[in-house]
Amino acid sequence: MADRDQSSAAPVLSVVIPCYNEGENVPLLFGRLMPALHALGVSIEVICVNDGSSDDTLDRLRAVQRDEPTLRIVDLSRNFGKEKALSAGLAHTRGQAVVPMDADLQHPPEAIAPMLEKWREGWEVVCARRDARAGQSLKDRLFARGFYWVFDHLSDVRLPREVGDFRLMDRRVVETINAMPERSRFMKGIFAWVGFRQTEILYHQGERAAGISKFSPIKLLRFAFDGLTSFSNFPLRVWGVIGAAISTLAFCYILVRIIRTLVWGIDVPGYESILVSVLFLGGMQLLTLGIIGDYLGRVFDEVKGRPLFIVRRLYEPGEE
């Protein structure tokens, strides 16, 4: 296959890095990232998306940019969340190949070289699969395993195991993702849904260089639920099955009570059974309404048609 490096005047490689309160990690990241990128021997650009950081992330990125002409900074007007910050970065890329990665150095920059080699072989998506989850507790690993199991069984899209946002994508893949209009962005699902010719490399996930994770257990749970509802309508359809099962059990119970009354006569009714039935059915109804409301909220967001993100300013190299 012809070498893709010569196919366009655009940079060969774009690296996208969403940043939210990563001030401590910025010098550590670029101290390791840039030597790895320059060693590739191809034209590059690095796009950092400042996702409404409240610390000195933007100032530190600007300081790096003064000495690094390949760095472009997309400064968002507020915090939109990692998925939309990543979408903003992808929308500003120009490279023939694009690599999203985290700013905390858990995604090793050295893994980009083997991904680039796979891309040159003709693969359109090169996923980086971690060999272990570094720095995570047993509870977090079990939660992740449970999420993948549920997602695989309830969604038509299968997520590659132990693969996050760290991957290389061909320009055609990125343009396809950028053209998708949906506002509920579960990027791992979107990456898997678009398809194209995919392969994997294996890498060792490092420890977080500095700071703490921005995802609390509640945020992770919400993120998992967002991912499921973005790619499956099973949570809506399942309540029809549950409702039919409950109705069948209730009908059988009514028959039993009628037969009991005809044979043994009327006995003293029990308030406990009535209370349990009312509370159980009421809880099921509220849960059903909550799930329907979540889907309806997504429809509401889509109908409003608001942009995914708002760029306050784009800092190009050489600007003051």
Automatic annotation (TrEMBL):
Places the protein is found: Membrane
Superkingdom field: Bacteria
UniProt-listed SUPFAM superfamilies: Nucleotide-diphospho-sugar transferases (SSF53448)
Keywords: Glycosyltransferase, Membrane, Transferase, Transmembrane, Transmembrane helix
EC numbers: 2.4.-.-
Listed InterPro entries: Glyco_trans_2-like, Glycosyltransferase_2, Nucleotide-diphossugar_trans
Sequence intervals crossing the membrane: 238-259, 274-296
Glycosyltransferase 2-like domain span: 14-176
UniProt membrane topology term: Multi-pass membrane protein
Molecular function in Gene Ontology: glycosyltransferase activity
Entries under Pfam families matching the protein: Glycos_transf_2
CDD domains listed in its UniProt record: DPM1_like_bac (cd04187)
Keyword Disulfide bond: no
PANTHER family the UniProt entry points to: PROPHAGE BACTOPRENOL GLUCOSYL TRANSFERASE HOMOLOG (PTHR48090:SF1), UNDECAPRENYL-PHOSPHATE 4-DEOXY-4-FORMAMIDO-L-ARABINOSE TRANSFERASE-RELATED (PTHR48090)
Protein name as catalogued: Glycosyltransferase family 2 protein
